[in-house]
Every structure is written in structure tokens, then in C-alpha cells.
């Protein structure tokens, strides 16, 4: 389960060219271009959000069963050599399930059902272990997988490379446009170009 991670940066480059109409008057023309730089890199980390949802006629029962299954899930994650600091509780809730209104006046309302939800966010530094970890977590009692996101631990080198490419692209576009601009015979004409 590998996916390329793309870093995309845009850069605005502004050039000002001064044209002297006379010794007392200057007319400033502006040329604005946008550069684009793209860099691809294989992800080296995965963030997984998984959880446990339990239902019970009592709040205490729903919470207790939820805690039991979540503890089993966390123990399985720790057994998979995931550091404790990379397993963080991201959500916990205890509420009643929506109830249907009685269909007749003689019908008694049903007793409330309680739902306990507990989610953890897990960071994996081995992208090839995602399937194995999810299988182990679901076998231990996790019944909710909310999100699986691939990313880079340190995206800065790719961002820097994309920025350098964006600057190079913007400079090339500016040079092409400037040649056309400077070839204009009228120095008093005001120009404002914007290219993407």
C-alpha cells in the first residue's frame, strides 16, 4: 500500500522595469509571473485512526466493554513494536442512541441504548506494516477504521526542491515575457502581465 507523496509549490515573481519618459518623469511597468515546481517522493510514514464502538443497555456496561476491547487493541499495537508515544487517544464519547417515537399511545418507549466510542491515532514508521497492523487491531476488537493517511516524516527537502524548481520556472517565464515587453516601441505605455 504505497502512494507517492507530491509537494507542489507556486511562486510569484515580480519584476519592475523603469522607463524614462524624461528627466523629470519615470514610468514603472510591472511584469508578474507564476512559477510551479513539483516533486514526488515515496511516503515513509502512515497515520491510522481506528477505534472501538460498543452498545449496551447501561452506560457503565458500554464503557466497560469499550475499555476492555480498546485495551486489547492497544496491547496488540504495542506488541507490533509501535511506540507508546505513537498511540494517542483522539476521541472518546458516551451517548444514547437515537430512539424511535412510540407508534401508538399505549406503546411504551423503549429503554435507552448507550453507545461508547473510543478512537486512537496511530503513527507507523513502516508503510509496509499497515495491513498487518490493521488485521491485528480488528482481531483484537477494533471495529472502526476512520482514516489511513500516507505522508513524509520530513517533507522539507522535497519542499525546498519544489521551491527551487518554481523559482526557475518563474524566472524562465519572466525572461520570455520581458523580451516582448522591452521590444515595445512606446516607453510611456504601462504594462501589467500575469501568467500562470
Looking at CATH, which topology of the largest domain would you report? Alpha-Beta Plaits
Query: What's the rounded overall pLDDT mean?
Result: 81
N- and C-termini, Cα separation:
34 Å
Strand content: 35-45%
- Helix content range: 25-40%
Structural class: alpha+beta
Gyration radius, in Å: 30 Å
- What's the name of the CATH homologous superfamily of the largest domain? Protein of unknown function (DUF541), domain 2
- Which regions contain 5 or more consecutive residues with pLDDT less than 50? 1-25
**Can you tell me the CATH architecture of the largest domain?**
2-Layer Sandwich
The total domain count is 2
Order of helices and strands: EEEHEEHEHE
The strand line-up of the biggest sheet is 4-5-3-6
Number of helical segments with 4 or more residues? 3
* Overall geometry: elongated
CATH top level assignment of the largest domain? Alpha Beta
Assembly of the depicted chains: single chain
Number of strands: 7
Biggest beta sheet attributes = 4 strands, antiparallel
Which terms summarize this structure?
single chain, 2 domains, 3-stranded mixed β-sheet, 4-stranded antiparallel β-sheet
Short note summarizing the structure:
The chain has 196 residues and is α+β, with helices and mostly antiparallel strands.
Can you tell me about this structure?
It is built from three helices and seven strands; from the N terminus they run E-E-E-H-E-E-H-E-H-E. It is of the alpha+beta class. The chain folds into two domains: 78 residues; 88 residues, Protein of unknown function (DUF541), domain 2 (Alpha-Beta Plaits, 2-Layer Sandwich), CATH 3.30.70.2970. The longest helix has 27 residues. It is elongated, with a radius of gyration of 30 Å.
Amino acid at each position: 500500500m504505497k502512494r507517492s507523496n507530491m509537494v507542489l509549490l507556486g511562486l510569484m515573481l515580480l519584476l519592475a522595469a523603469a522607463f524614462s519618459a524624461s528627466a523629470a518623469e519615470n514610468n514603472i511597468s510591472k511584469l508578474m509571473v507564476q512559477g510551479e515546481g513539483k516533486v514526488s517522493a515515496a511516503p515513509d510514514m502512515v497515520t491510522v485512526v481506528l477505534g472501538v464502538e460498543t452498545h449496551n443497555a447501561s452506560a457503565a456496561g458500554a464503557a466497560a466493554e469499550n475499555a476492555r476491547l480498546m485495551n486489547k487493541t492497544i496491547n496488540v499495537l504495542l506488541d507490533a513494536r509501535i511506540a507508546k508515544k505513537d498511540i494517542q487517544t483522539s476521541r472518546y464519547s458516551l451517548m444514547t442512541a437515537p430512539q424511535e417515537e412510540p407508534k401508538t399511545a399505549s406503546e411504551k418507549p423503549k429503554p435507552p441504548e448507550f453507545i461508547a466510542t473510543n478512537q486512537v491515532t496511530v503513527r507507523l514508521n513502516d508503510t509496509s506494516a499497515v495491513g498487518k497492523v490493521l488485521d491485528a487491531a480488528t482481531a483484537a476488537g477494533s471495529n472502526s477504521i476512520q482514516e489511513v493517511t500516507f505522508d513524509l516524516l520530513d517533507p522539507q527537502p522535497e519542499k525546498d526542491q519544489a521551491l527551487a524548481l518554481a523559482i526557475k520556472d518563474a524566472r524562465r517565464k519572466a525572461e520570455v515575457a520581458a523580451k516582448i515587453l522591452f521590444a515595445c516601441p512606446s516607453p510611456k505605455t504601462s504594462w501589467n502581465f500575469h501568467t500562470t
